[in-house]
Amino acid sequence: MIPSRRLLALLLAGLVPVIIGAATPSLRWTIWVYVLLLIGFVALDWFMTPKPKLLEVARINEPKLSIGEQNLITLAVHNQSPRTLDIQIRDEFPVEFPSDTLILKTKVEPESVQEISYHVRPLRRGDYRFGNINLRYTSTFGTFLRQTKIAFDELVKVYPNVLDVRKYDMLARKGMLFELGLRTARVFGSGTEFERLREYTPDDEFRSINWKASARRNKLIAAEYETERSQYVVAVIDTGRLMRPTINDIAKLDYAINASLMLGYVAMLKGDHIGMLSFADHVGRFLQPRRGKAQFYQMLEMLYNLPSQPVEADYGRAISYLGLKNKRRSLIVIFTDLSTMDTAKPLIQHMARLAKTHLALCVVMSDPNLVGYAGKAAYSSTDVYERAVAEMVLDERRVVLDTLNQAGVHTIDVPANKLTVSVINKYLEFKGRGLI
Predict the structure, then answer these.
(1) Could you give the count of Cα atoms lying within 13 Å of 212 in the half-sphere of its Cβ?
(2) Neighbouring residues of 300: CB distance < 8 A, sequence distance ≥ 6
(3) What is the tens place of the pLDDT at every residue in 193-247?
(4) 39, exposed or middle or buried, with CB in 10 Å at 0-12, 13-18, 19+?
(5) Backbone angles phi, psi at 333, to 5 degrees
(6) Are strands 154-159 and 144-150 parallel, antiparallel or unpaired?
(7) Could you give the dihedral angle defined by the CA atoms of residues 403, 404, 410 and 412, in that order, rounded to the nearest 10 degrees?
(8) Roughly what angle, to the nearest 10 degrees, separates helices 29-48 and 5-13?
(9) Which residues pair with 29 in a beta bridge?
(10) Separation of alpha carbons 104 and 197, rounded Å
(11) How far is the CA of 62 from the CAs of 21, 188, 240, 387, in angstroms?
(12) pTM for the model
């Protein structure tokens, strides 16, 4: 029981009979009367206030929370008492999760259920645990606050961004993928899967004419083809030290994993085989490319607790291993980062070799701090030094990317918040042009 301001005010009011009793000994009985009345009032309030056993609380949330997103947590309070209760709730969410609120307040009518929500934003993948739910509500006459703790221990897993996957599904059903910044993948006239017949136009290739259909209709008819399905897409994720720094509190590795997961999901919907490989100084996890939703869910489970390593990445070992395990021509998307030209030489060497047999795409994230320093106005010698170093690093980065392009490797260098959309659009572009 926690005394309320009202009870404190009543206790202060008791100074009046105390003063009167001190000044007039014959009226000292008023002190005892007031004390007994106050005790009786509080006792009556205790008796009439609903007991904690009349309150039930349930925590409602997704079994898989998404990293870096505002995940909705809902608390449902069932008031089985005959009185309206003003309730404060403090949920014991994991201390690692930033939250938009700490104390929730709600009013619950008699014999009813009231839902109240808050959001948490996990910054790391892995296993976490929610604790108890603490309730505090005002007594019937407002003389105290009653507090209770409801045991609701719960294990939750923080996954890569599965909310983006659900959003993609919803917008795809509505035909509104443009809201995500995605472009259409269907480019007629390329590929090998027949799509439809239509009237021939001067812009069409001569080989697209369907002579049998043209003979039947007595005019030139062109056949349109869509890009074939059942291609191979493999996400190769660098988990070395260059992927450990954070951007907006989220590690670069997590941005890469989110993009890999969405790439796998879109490719799975397109009928392609999807696979993944992680590596640092040695090969970590490998998933042989296959088709179907079960493959996507297996990829999700392999990625949800994939750790980073404080070591240099061995590109040669990873690409050699992939070459042994996957001999069919595939789209190989390598998520990594660049530092200097010297450290990037192994990447250039091995990706150039990879590009001879596969469609290779190197994906890196631009560092907003470097871009900021490079464009920063110089007001001191320190500013001049920082700007010079940032511009030098950016120049080396451009040289590395240009060298990769000249070796036949496609590249993406975008801010972290645009990584997923850029990767998906590049995949759709490749698929539309029939490059895989």
Answers:
(1) 2
(2) 159, 160, 162, 261
(3) 556 677 888 767 777 788 888 888 888 888 776 555 579 999 999 999 999 999 8
(4) exposed
(5) -105, 110
(6) unpaired
(7) -80
(8) 160
(9) none
(10) 61
(11) 63, 40, 31, 45
(12) 0.78
pLDDT of residue 72: 96
Contact (Cβ atoms closer than 8 angstroms) between residue 288 and residue 298: no
**Digit-coded pLDDT (tens) for 101-157:** 999 999 999 999 999 999 999 999 999 999 999 999 999 888 889 999 998 889 999
Residue 324 pLDDT > 80: yes
Q: Identify the bridge partners of residue 279 per DSSP, sorted by sequence position.
A: 238, 283
DSSP characters for 128-145? Answer: EEE--EEEEEE-SSSSEE
Q: In what order do the strands lie in the sheet with 154-159?
A: 64-66, 154-159, 126-130
Q: Do β-strands 359-365 and 246-247 pair in parallel, antiparallel, or remain unpaired?
A: unpaired
φ and ψ at 139, to 5 degrees? Answer: -65, 170
What is the side-by-side order of every strand in the sheet holding 71-79?
55-60, 71-79, 112-120
Q: Which SS3 state, helix, strand or coil, does residue 150 take?
A: strand
Helix, strand or coil for residue 405? helix
Q: Going along 80-231, which residue ranges are E strands?
A: 85-91, 104-108, 112-120, 126-130, 133-138, 144-150, 154-159, 193-199, 221-226
376 neighbors 387 (Cβ within 8 angstroms): yes
Nearest to 100 by CA among 122, 120, 75, 126: 120
Structure tokens at 209: 């004419």
Q: Among the residues of 14-116, which ranges form H helices?
A: 15-23, 29-48
420 Cβ neighbours under 8 A, 6+ residues apart = 161, 164, 255, 258, 259, 262, 263
Average pLDDT over residues 52-61: 92
301 CB-near residues (< 8 Å, 6+ apart): none
- Location of structure tokens 């996507």: 296
Reading the block at residue 208, the tokens are 């697209």
* E strand spans, 378-427: 410-414
In 3D space, the residue among 246, 232, 244, 249 whose CA is nearest the CA of residue 280 turns out to be 244
Q: Which amino acid is at 293?
A: K
Which residues pair with residue 286 across a beta bridge?
Answer: 277
Q: Which string of b and e fits 397-430 if b means at least 16 CB within 10 Å?
A: beebbebbeebebbbbbeebebbbbbbbbbbbeb
CA distance 351 to 79: 63
Residue 248 contacts residue 282 (beta carbons within 8 Å): no
End-to-end CA distance of the chain: 69
